[in-house]
């Protein structure tokens, strides 16, 4: 049997002498507790080091946002609207406040699963029925011993062990190596905020994306107007290519090096941020409406949430979800109406997730 030290796939192993332990099995199924990516070819994270992105992406994002705000509010807007500049600056500052504060809440809000916090009376089975083994109630793993083993893949809606955390985790809870823990209702890892998006900080992520998209549209509108009024007369279409613009400025064109910097950082940086924010916002809204996490959508896991859209909003933003878009508040002031251990309202798949039997001869 091919066994690896990873938390991507949980397996339940029965030892021939009656003992039980948990390990992980390399498996390609998309219907089980976790999935394993294909071994063919180089994956994106083998080319781009995720630990590098995890460490430095927040600084890049914060610097980009502050730079665009500073240039826009204190350089472009005063030249565009000398009489009404303060109104536009207040609007831009409000967008900056919403983006930075929600970004900070994403970074600081912990959605990890802690054994000491979940109520014992809600030891969950989820919509996928099974008998809770005694080992789950003990919250520990029996040491691995040498023996012939039969392994079976955990269904997605079943509690499963995490080898890294050394305890059992509820359904929809996945381990993140970058964050170093199991995240309740994990959606994905956000490199911009250096934290996983899960149960408690999904609300801040949605509001963050919303205001980032609005702020990008605000900046693009005024940025194009500023470019046409003050720069375009001395530029050509060749200046839209950064390297050509740089060469033309060296060779004596009217395009200055300052204009090159504005085009590269403001133009292409804003374009990349706009596209990335818009795509993530659409994905996040779709996930919220259908009641699935990003992990479940990506791996085509059968999840049906029969609740109304209002109930789904409350499961993310809390009972007063309307105020989340005006004043971001700490999670404990308005906790989500959600049970991250039971998921009793979800409709289990008509056909049970397959159980994969692997026998060591």
TrEMBL record:
Judging by the UniProt lineage, the source's domain of life is: Eukaryota
Catalysed reactions, as listed in the record: L-cysteinyl-[protein] + hexadecanoyl-CoA = S-hexadecanoyl-L-cysteinyl-[protein] + CoA
Q: Name one Pfam family in it.
A: DHHC
UniProt protein name: Palmitoyltransferase
Concerning PROSITE patterns, the annotation shows: DHHC
* Membrane topology, from the record: Multi-pass membrane protein
**Protein family per UniProt:** Belongs to the DHHC palmitoyltransferase family.
Any one GO MF annotation of this record: protein-cysteine S-palmitoyltransferase activity
